[in-house]
Amino acid sequence: MRDPVNDFDYPDEWVARCKDPDMLNDVIEGTSVLTSSGVALKRGFTTGTTASAACKAAVLSLRRQVSQVDIDIPCGLTVKVEAKGIQGSALCRKFSGDYPSDVTSGACFIAEASVCNATTLLPGQGIGRFVRDTPRGSRGSAAISPSAHGEIMLAIHQACREIGIPGATVKLEIENGEELARRTLNPRMGIEGGISVLGTTGLVEPWDDHLDKSNEERIANASRVVLTTGRNGLRYSRLLFPDHEVVLVGTRVKRALDIARGDVILAGMPALILKFIEPNILKGSGCATVDELVATELGRERMNVVLGKGKETYPSVRIVLFDRTGAVIGDTQ
User: Fold this and answer.
1) Residue 53: helix, strand or coil by DSSP?
2) Are 72 and 155 part of one and the same domain?
3) Structurally, how many domains does the chain consist of?
4) CA-CA-CA-CA torsion for 93, 97, 103, 106, nearest 10 degrees?
5) Is there a single domain that holds both residue 183 and residue 251?
């Protein structure tokens, strides 16, 4: 049995331990993750998927009442999302699955749609905006990632075709988004006024630090393993190292390195990896984030120094850093 989201082949003994056919079906569909104990944990929906559902429901409700919509998410799956829509207005509450500390769990996404010749998305209250130019977005732009924006626009276009209209203007808001954002990293990322709309796969993994007992077993048993810190790192690591077991470890880098044996690669975006090696990397740089730092010539020099320190500390581990396009910007090999 293979996970359709991350292509992990579940061991037969894990599958045998799961006695609930409905759980196994959810695992096959990708909406749940099977653990080594045989228990399946529900994946949640990202803010991008939640926004897409609200927008699609709003457009469809111009013609009929809506209670659920099908959303094509970035990882290639189609998921059913509960969203209530009537007369061009819709709301969708974010489902966090079995992710225990999702700050945005239950957040209410509200969309208002009207018929138009062209399709336009209008980000409104509760959606953060960049207050300075950063590698993630320019000053004044809405904090909606490219993958989430594409997911939303696809959902709107599909709804327009389904009800036979040329296009729609959709205004999207997030109730209490500004308040929720104070509990996120957005203020440090140069984003104010609300939360970000994100989602590389469209789904949220059902654990805090991305390193549970099941993943520890994968790391310990792999002769060639890539440890990665986030979703982009997961995607690019699979492309660059197809013959390795790729495991998402989040912030638990040290624990993962302690477990790993054999051919070990630590790969991902710069922020978590560089701060793991050198917690004070931003000190005296004048930059608020590692992303901003490595976008400068001086920052690249500092990045290479930190990578050298990492190689000294972990001489048997190869460290690889990607930018947001998947290009390798650092490699200790």
Assistant:
1) helix
2) yes
3) 3
4) 20
5) no
